[in-house]
Write a structure and sequence with these properties.
- There is one protein chain.
- By secondary structure, this protein is an alpha+beta fold.
- The protein folds into three domains: 100 residues, Alpha-Beta Complex (Histone Acetyltransferase, domain 1); 154 residues, Aminopeptidase, CATH 3.40.630.30; 128 residues, no CATH class.
- Helix content is 36%, strand content 20%.
- The chain is built from twelve helices and 16 strands.
- The strands form five sheets. It has a six-stranded mixed beta sheet, with helices on both faces. A four-stranded mixed beta sheet has the order 2-1-4-5.
- β11 and β12 form a beta hairpin.
- The longest helix has 32 residues.
- The protein starts with 32 loop residues before the first helix and ends with a helix.
- Its EC number is 2.3.1.48.
- Belongs to the HAT1 family.
Amino acid sequence: MGRKQQHPNADPLPEPKKKRRVGFSNTDAGVEPNDCIKIYLVSKKEEVGTSDGFCIDPVDLNSFFEEDEKIYGYQGLKITIWVSSISFRAHADITFQGTSDGGKGITDLKSALEKIFGETLLDNKDDFMQSFSTENNFISSVVSHGEKLQTKTSNGHITHVNGNSEATSSDLEVFCLKIDNLAAGHLYSRLVPLVLLLVDGSNPVDVTDPSWELYLLTQKKIYQPENTRHLLLGFAALYRFYHYPDGSRLRLSQILVLPPYQHKGYGSCLVEVLTDVAISENVYDLTVEEPLDYFQHVRTSFDIKRLLAFEPAQEAVKSAVSRLKQGKLSKKAHIPRFLPPPDVVEGVRKTLKINKKQFLQCWEILIYLGLDPIEKHMEDYVTIINKRVKADILGKDSEAAGKQVTEVQSVHDTETSFVMFRSQCGEVGGVQMDEDQTKTQEQQLQQLVDERIKEVKLIAEKVSQKHV
């Protein structure tokens, strides 16, 4: 069969259409703020743009960015933030290779950084650099509005500061200002970024509330006879409560030693000054609002030192130690609580301004220090710690029969949905913890006991070294 001929003047047949390949761009996975942001605390303009300043690390920046705590839309993003320890102004140096919307938008970096640094963030680098000279007396100007407190801290020893200067006890000064004072409020507003970054769970205090007090720990630096400046090492914010009928209570809400000066004894210095204020003013007591573990360690070490010199507390400790040494507690059906006498608890509060909760924390360490040699009595000591931990978690009568834990239906986390109750007349009811629940509870309680023993040993070792 012949092929059909196409007429020479006919339109050519259309080319078959090529299938278009449809491509999808990769979804922007974002970048963790901690992976692209570095924050430096600098004391002079020559440190800006170098690595000579103090890098504040680690800092959790994620919570300040987007709902899922990431930065989107940037390639090769690098943010370096400089914070002046002279004026507490800040400047951000932001560089990136390009931007693109990968489905998550492009993060507004300026507004995100302003959530942290607020008005302290200067857009113009020249303005930031000039602040080192134009505001070099900023801290001195603020403390001139405050009351200078008597300090007897650091025991006169020399502490190296930032590698190139020294501070002795005579160089350290503490000033107290009402935070509604214009100068104090101005300084605190510039310290807020460091509070947000470095004090877990903290929110800015109300600078218009006269019940807030700001305590500033400074190092006095004399450059010339007529030129004295103050370097801020740390600060504390306290709230003064009314206590019936004519007294007051002090609560420490925020305390921060600036990162370059941490682990040099300045935290203890501030605690000592605040304690002296509480004693000299005869306030009811001095408490701490949700202390972090590290600060609690510093605070307890300081209080132990004072309690070792307080005779009524020492007499009570000797009595408790004597009872503990009498026999194997782990083999006894009933283990005594080894609590301090109420009159001693009250005496400690009145004289040393240590509240009952804090004194009980110190009490266990005082007993540990009194057990010499500790190795001989360690089993019994662990037994009383175990009993106390169980009492705190399960109640004072945790060893009595009849207390039960049972799971209940809940729309929330089923693993934490339970009730605890006691049967009438101490009889064990039909619903009890199963074997796995009992084992898990025992493991959790043992972990708490182990952590407490470790903490006791660390503080005891620290206190003992100071008394060698």
